[in-house]
């Protein structure tokens, strides 16, 4: 079987294994080890803006720890109605933000524009009976595999500032957007990140095992997050193995190469999809119109993937997807 | 330097590495993989009682997820005043239990007896102005390296039932108590666990990397915990690497052998301590009366350890402590 | 000026004042007084089902205390997208339910049918990534002044049982629906209540000062609510003044007479509205299509009311609305 | 029977009734009415410092709303181990502060000094494993009827500033301390309040019905409290009746006269107690050593009061305690 189910269950990249093994001697516990101590500087260098970087085991925790710095319990976070934090995190924002609300905006391709956000927050009366928006959360790449351009990000950031909203980026597939935008690692990272206030920088779907990075561009709030990470039971005592994973991905720009590889595989598949594509392919996910019969036909050829509603399927390419398999899938779809 | 600082930063045992590497191909994400699916049965077999077993990355999360099943937000958990959940988990119980209270009991060696618990809950008026106790949390081995005997556990369990208190065991060093109590793996596990309602079974300090097991002896509540684990951001998508760690420790009873090794090292040290011991050594930790000068002398010989207040030190033996080093430390203390 | 702004700021009914004054000597504090002790029996008699009844100062608190008995922090409450708990309670459900989610259903006139509810909960995957529905909240009379019939309530209750959902009724204007459904006080109360699990029985908008009743038809959960009421700072030490208000409204069926009066006034107004009515008038609220110019004309005649969007107005009749004023308003609208 | 049980169930003062009746016509709902609008200015004038003042129905809510402005969910509030917020508020701080911790200090007469506070916070390690103190809560008059002098308050305020702790005063019996310190209403209020950051100014025990005032001396945080008050279900729609109570007590300094009266009655009783007094009488409460036999003898004479442990009793004088009754009680005790 050739799996295009999800990148979230892929194997771990050799560079990550290598880095973890290299960390296999006692060091200070928690985040007191030498590897964890490197993170702030490494991400500050990557993004060209001073930031704090904390490892955490899941994207859900990363998103929620960041959001909690910018939305009070009595406030709300605006996000797309199909955002992962709304739909697929088991209510984690409600837990971490102590009952704050998510306000659902609509936008094409699970992306948001200032107009989309204004449509849901402008009608909110400025009184205590209605929950006021405190933050805005976007996803890069979006839940439909779309990438915000630097210009779109700048427009959103400006809007957020005007409305006094914190701006958080769920970057579970941040690397794929960065790879799409192109350039060196620094150029790509900066283009994909824009000037958000915080970023959940995903490594797990891109070859890591269980380490994501919460990037806080206001280092003053990082201390609060350190306390909240512990309080959430996310401060691992052998944290060096998480720091190692992240550093193993940063060294030699493995993160960017892996994402570029997955993106290329997605493009291979896209070549065969033509009009069937529901969204432009701007990362490593494809949403493809396929009837039940067509899906059955593909599965009979050994391709594994998820249905997407009744008339479509989702394919995800990963860092370890073989280009041959991607090409074969593209051809199989084209041949339907 | 020879480190007796803590077992919480020790290296990862080869059997754990081996099991993790063996899990390095795509499987179903989250806890849908083959390895995670084994856990319930494996622990049910070990403990001889039906149970559900969920992996989670830290002992703090394990404790809090279990406690949340037995204490409502408006209730309280009774624990020792020096319990880890009270002193060292950054307020995690307050977070996971939505503001429930911890009631502090006193007891010798950080252990609790029914009398100790009754002393703090009997004065609580049965009215809405005072927070009522819902659960009791004990630590095996205790924060001072003491082990509850099966008889002590049975007395506590009976007391908890009489008072309608849930009974949770923080087993960060559960294996060390089990090893002390002796017998086969099954005998040791059952002796150390008694009939508690839930157990946070620690593997990390005993050779694991970042996987503990929450054991729920009422499988009906396990579903609730599965939702809460996700909600807390603790459901890793590549959960098979955590299941693998636990299974790697269960296979061949590595968990018991590692703990027995650490306990033996602790006894080696204890031989040299005589009257200096503040607590009987019933696991892998030693609390030893040592003046500042004496501690300095030991450090000058290359021993690393933490001060324990002004006039004592704590030494912790780990699964990878060399017996020679332990012997040497015991002799060095004896020679002071 | 003749006020049709809202019933929520009306004066206090003489019977309520009388009852409060009669309570003006020391009694046991909190809810230990003689008046508070009467409540359970009085409402059990009224509804013909065993229940517990607790006073509380606001409808928001009443709703949230009840909902917290049927929805865990990791669950969700289904409600209409324009439900008061979603739109106008400042996020109180998120606070009282510790981050539980509200799921928004659509339904005509802010009422819900099983089909409306199924439309939003059937698509929820039964896995830990999605928040599962635990409860259903309806409003009687609805936010658009609509009344659920006994048959509609029975259908909903059956649906809720089938789906294992708790069923709560926000009855801020419960009396108005009861009055509409008609019959004796017992008949009206039972018809309007159906077999919900809990009811926030509103008295404030109907002539009370600051006392609502939380009615819990599962008396076993009432104890939990008593603890939670205290924990929320809603256990007043001179609670007898709240119990007095409620009893003052129950005695002589003042609650029903007041509501009937307000309903009648609303019908007076409705007579003049004809096709302008956006919703059938089944309680004491009217939503009337009126242009800005028309609204201005009415205000110039001394009528006070709120705009409802750009092209409509809301009029609310209260227990103390004079029928003459209502008739005059109806005529004024008809004359536009 | 002559009641010395508590001031918390006393009747309502005529001035309060009068003010409430005067408010009995429709005005803007919630806190949009003319009376609520007066509060900020009235308390600013009283205290001579700019402040915001919000009514709320209970002292528990008042304390918790104020504390939530100065202690994050991951922080702690230091209070006396017998403080009302710790012992008698049903865990409300845990609810309102989203799981923040209370740290228990010891101090004579339920008062705290900087030394008392330092004794519990100095040992807290400055790391994420331990909950850090964010705020300090004191009670004026204390739970044992003791009054902080202006000098003591200044020392505490300075200490709080040095340690970056917010400083809150639970003033359930603030008026009694003010009356003890003496002078005009302004002088007394300022002397009793010192420079705390927030005050829960109690009126209910002193002749009110169900309105306390949360005083926030940093008006910038008041907006946050307005949102949180609504979110806690404490924004009453007919709020004018609460504002009226407070204004009725402020007008003509009724609050101060009532407290002075109660204090005087307490002194009457104290005259008969001599060495039996467990604490100096500095407000309206007395804690008196009395054997069970003695207590029985007093009760046989018609005096009602609570036992205080096994060998003592608590007597509370209220605004409506008759001096004759107080004198009689004092004599009865002296005659034992």
Describe the 3D structure.
The structure is a homotetramer of 336-residue chains. By secondary structure, chain A is of the alpha/beta class. The first copy, chain A, is built from 14 helices and twelve strands. In chain A, strand 11 and strand 12 form a beta hairpin. The longest helix of chain A has 18 residues, at 254-271. Chains in contact: A-B, A-C, A-D, B-C, B-D, C-D.
List keywords for this structure.
homotetramer, 336 residues, alpha/beta, Aspartate Aminotransferase, domain 1, Aspartate Aminotransferase, domain 2, seven-stranded mixed sheet, 12 strands, globular
Q: What's the short version?
A:
With about 325 residues, chain A is an alpha/beta fold. Chain A has helices at about 15-20, 35-45, 60-65, 85, 90-95, 115-120, 150-160, 175-180, 185-195, 220-230, 240-250, 255-270, 290-300, 325-335, and strands spanning about 1-5, 50-55, 75-80, 100-105, 130-140, 165-170, 200, 210-215, 285-290, 305, 305, 310-315. Chain A has 2 domains: about 1-10 and about 255-335, Aspartate Aminotransferase, domain 1, CATH 3.90.1150; about 15-255, Type I PLP-dependent aspartate aminotransferase-like (Major domain) (Aspartate Aminotransferase, domain 2, 3-Layer(aba) Sandwich).
Just give the CATH class of the largest domain in chain A. Alpha Beta
CATH topology of the largest domain in chain A: Aspartate Aminotransferase, domain 2
The helix-strand sequence of chain A is EHHEHEHHEHEHEHHEEHHHEHEEEH
The profile of the biggest β sheet of chain A is: 7 strands, mixed
Helical segment count of chain A = 14
Strand content of chain A: 15-25%
Helix-strand makeup class of chain A = alpha/beta
* Mean pLDDT across residues of chain A: 97
Count the domains of chain A: 2
Q: Which superfamily, in CATH terms, is the homologous superfamily of the largest domain in chain A?
A: Type I PLP-dependent aspartate aminotransferase-like (Major domain)
């Amino acid at each position: 079987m050739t799996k295009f189910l999800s990148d979230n269950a892929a194997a771990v990249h050799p560079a990550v294994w290598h880095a973890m093994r290299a960390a296999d001697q006692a060091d200070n516990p928690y985040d007191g080890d030498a590897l964890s101590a490197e993170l702030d500087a490494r991400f500050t260098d990557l993004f060209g803006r001073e930031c704090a970087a904390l490892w955490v085991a899941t994207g859900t925790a990363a998103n929620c720890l960041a959001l909690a710095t910018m939305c009070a319990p009595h406030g709300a976070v605006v996000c797309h109605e199909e955002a992962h934090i709304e739909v697929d995190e088991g209510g984690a924002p409600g837990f971490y933000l102590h009952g704050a609300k998510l306000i659902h905006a609509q936008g094409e391709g699970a992306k948001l524009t200032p107009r989309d956000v204004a449509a849901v927050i402008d009608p909110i009366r400025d009184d205590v009976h209605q929950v006021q928006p405190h933050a805005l959360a976007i996803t890069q790449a979006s839940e439909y595999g779309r990438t915000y351009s630097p210009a779109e990000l700048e427009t959103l950031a400006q809007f957020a500032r005007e409305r006094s909203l914190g701006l958080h980026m769920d970057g579970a597939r941040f690397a794929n957007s960065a790879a799409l935008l192109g350039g060196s690692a620094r150029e790509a990272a900066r283009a994909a990140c824009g000037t958000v206030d915080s970023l959940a920088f995903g490594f797990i779907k891109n070859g890591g095992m269980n380490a994501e990075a919460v990037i806080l561009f206001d280092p003053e709030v990082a201390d609060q997050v350190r306390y909240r990470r512990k309080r959430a039971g996310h401060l691992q005592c052998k944290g060096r193995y998480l720091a190692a994973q992240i550093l193993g991905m940063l060294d030699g720009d493995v993160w960017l190469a892996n994402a570029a590889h997955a993106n290329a595989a997605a493009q291979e598949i896209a070549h065969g999809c033509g009009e069937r594509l529901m969204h432009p392919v701007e990362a490593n996910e494809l949403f493809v119109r396929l009837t039940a019969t067509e899906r059955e036909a593909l599965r009979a050829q050994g391709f594994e993937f998820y249905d997407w509603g009744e008339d479509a399927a989702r394919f995800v390419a990963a860092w370890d997807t073989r280009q041959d398999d991607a090409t074969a899938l593209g051809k199989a779809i084209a041949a339907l």
